Amino acid sequence: MDFREIYDVSVILNSRLAVWPGDPAPEFRQLSTLAEGAEANVSLLHFGAHTGTHMDAPRHFIEGANGVDKFPLEALVGTAYVLEFDLKPGEHIQAAHLEQAGLPEKVERVLFKTNNSNLWANPEVFHENYSALAPDGAEWLVERGVKLVGIDYLSIERFKPGVYQTHHILLSQQVVVVEGLDLRQIEPGEYTLMALPLKIQDADGAPARVLLAR
User: Fold this and answer.
1) Is the CA virtual torsion 85, 91, 94, 97 positive or negative?
2) How far apart are CA 158 and CA 133, in angstroms?
3) Is residue 88 packed enough to be buried (19+ CB in 10 Å), middle (13-18) or exposed (0-12)?
4) pLDDT band at residue 1 using 50, 70 and 90 as cut-offs
5) pLDDT of 34-57, one tens digit each?
6) Under a CB-based contact definition with an 8 Å cutoff, are residues 53 and 208 in contact?
7) How far apart are alpha carbons 131 and 128 in whole angstroms?
8) C-alpha to C-alpha distance for 149 and 188, rounded to whole angstroms
9) Is residue 142 over pLDDT 80?
């Protein structure tokens, strides 16, 4: 494929990156260094499966369900649409928003750009008042056969919902969930998506490198 533009919409991982409350902070440590006479530089990486830009597998909320290593590859690569919503802090994407968005028919991959993207200007602080996908919005996507949905903060679901309806609606239907996208430089419209998680056996989630191209 001959792309004019390729965008990396992944958040860079470092030890200062904010994580979901209660998750382990990222740790990056040198086990050996050339400067100290070792044969090679070797690093130890320590972080949770849902750190930075990552994907949720059905196993994340459904006991005994598939992990990230069972994701269908055809869901991870292909045409995607970026929809932009100008939402107030804490306002969430509902079915009514999607009805009015003008999304083309038979769309299989949808990424949401919201005011969350501005939060990545200060990635060291976790922001509770982000925008998410409401349960009726998740149902709207499932009914239309969407295979992958992504959003520009650390969860597709609002902070502390009590019952994680949005996750259950999507993951129970094998919809791939991508969280922690940095869409600040992305205009709404059609792209080719390449979203590949680390291939970890039976993992409930995994960090991912996500590219958009056109």
Assistant:
1) negative
2) 7
3) exposed
4) low
5) 999 999 999 999 999 999 999 999
6) yes
7) 9
8) 15
9) yes
Q: Which amino acid makes up residue 163?
A: V
Separation of alpha carbons 150 and 37, rounded Å: 44
Name the nearest CA neighbour of 6 among 193, 197, 173: 193
Supply 34's token pair. 């050339």
Read off the tokens for 88.
């107030």
SS3 for 94-115 is CHHHHHCCCCCCCCCEEEEECH
Q: Is the pLDDT of residue 18 over 80?
A: yes
Would the pLDDT of 203 be above 90? yes
Q: What is the pLDDT of residues 70-81, one digit of tens each?
A: 999 999 999 999
Encode pLDDT of 150-181 as tens digits: 999 999 999 999 999 999 999 999 999 999 99
Angstrom distance (rounded) from CA 34 to CA 118: 39
Residue 20 per-residue DSSP state: -
List the structure tokens of 51.
């750190």
Tokens representing 139 are 């149902």
The residue to which tokens 């520009």 are assigned: 152
Mean pLDDT within 98-127: 96
**Residue given tokens 């039976």 in the structure block:** 202
pLDDT bin (cut points 50, 70, 90) of residue 211 is: very high
Question: What domains can you pick out in the chain, each with its CATH number?
Answer: 6-13+48-213 (3.50.30.50)
Q: Give the count of beta carbons closer than 10 Å to the beta carbon of residue 114.
A: 24
